[in-house]
Amino acid sequence: MLHYKCLNKHEMSFISIEQYELTNKRILLREDFNVPIVNGKITDLTRIKAALPTIEYLIAKKAKIGIISHLGRPKNYSFDNNFSLGNICDALSKLLNLPVKLIPNDFNTPLSSEYISIFENIRFLKGETNNDEALAKKMAAACDIFIMDAFGCSHRAHASTNGIAKFVPIAIAGPLLKKEINSIKKFISTPKRPILAIIGGAKISSKLPLLTKLIKSVDKLIIGGGMANTCLKAMEMEIGKSLYESDTVTSAKTLLETNKEKILLPIDAVVSKNLNENHDVRTIALTEMQPDDIIGDIGTNTIKSYNEAIQNAGTIIWNGPVGIFEMETFENGTKEIALAIANSNGYSIAGGGDTISAINKFAVTQKISYISTGGGAFLALLQNKELPGVTYLATSAQSAT
Ligand code: ADP
Ligand code: MG
């Protein structure tokens, strides 16, 4: 049952930022500004906009604000302009109508209440993803209060989401984090059946383990995108040169074998020989795949079968586009799924950076019942996993029910 019986930290109530004196205090604010960027341009501002109420509250209190975030997955822990938080400063400055400065992530630059400081991408430092104690302590020493507001990263035990909170005098849950956790908790406490989950996207290795538990709580699971390719590979079907992860094939096989009746997989696909040149784009049955074909989207018959499941669902959970929706050639599957969810009578809850971007692109934002800024965190919370990002945040100890 997708019944939220919470016996961990989420059950306690976080102490609100309103209960602390913030004026002139050095605040490190962890936000999730991991927004989609194409050719240096932000294509979706949702995650930044979601953080505005928190930032505006701190500004009104005249706090000295330093924002920590990551952006993308930079390789080798070194500077890469494509992943610089400099890409975010302008957008945030415009939204706040205040100066926003990019500062080094050595945590030596003093913070000011005259402007907002953003530290350079925290994932340029090796210690971040390792949850390195020295880095956590260095960050902690740079502030009086740490506010964890990055719901989208709260499923990660990283130095800026988990480690830092152990060493600061005060670590509090931000308003966005609180809102997300409370809304999702509320939703899963009384879901309308049948429950359908649609999981797609590219982060196969991080999402697949979550499916093993999620599938127990849902009545049907649709798999699309790169995740579906891995499943097809596990069924020993030809997937040509499509995206998949060899390390996850075995766990995909187990998932499929133990949950045959619940899982819906693609039956046809939009393929091409070369994604960039849209060379020889065809819609074919999966049995017709050639070794040099690349799957970019689900095909029309798959859309039909997925739509039927959506129409029959009482609750729809969606994370991950079912195709490379950023490209016109491969957008149709995700578009049709988004429209079907929007027009269904079921309660719909969606999350994930790229999923939000797709929801906005296909203009269905108003017709989704709840949109979460988190992807992996959203999936983790749906199955009642402890979020490492909340472990050390201040709570008023309430007894568990
Ligand atoms: P979210 O951010 O919503 O959690 P992910 O980051 O997991 O979603 O995945 C989003 C990405 O998955 C998109 O950039 C999309 O292009 C990609 N994707 C979807 N289907 C495919 C596919 N068949 N092949 C390659 N990439 C895909
Ligand atoms: Mg993404």
What's the short version?
The protein is 34% helix and 18% strand. By secondary structure, the chain is of the alpha/beta class.
Give the SSE map.
Elements: E1 13-14, E2 26-30, E3 37-38, E4 41-42, H1 46-60, E5 64-68, H2 86-96, E6 100-103, E7 116-119, H3 126-129, H4 133-141, E8 145-148, H5 159-167, E9 170-173, H6 175-189, E10 195-199, H7 204-217, E11 220-223, H8 225-234, H9 249-258, E12 263-264, E13 268-272, E14 282-285, E15 294-298, H10 300-312, E16 315-319, H11 332-343, E17 347-351, H12 353-361, E18 370-372, H13 376-382, E19 395-396
The chain binds adenosine-5'-diphosphate (ADP) and magnesium ion.
Which structural class do you get from the secondary structure elements? alpha/beta
Give the N-to-C terminal Cα separation.
18 Å
Rg from C-alpha positions? 21 Å
Associated small molecules: adenosine-5'-diphosphate, magnesium ion
Mean pLDDT comes to: 93
Total strands: 19
- Tell me roughly what share of residues is in helical segments: 25-40%
Sheet with most strands: 6 strands, parallel
- CATH-defined superfamily of the largest domain: Phosphoglycerate kinase, N-terminal domain
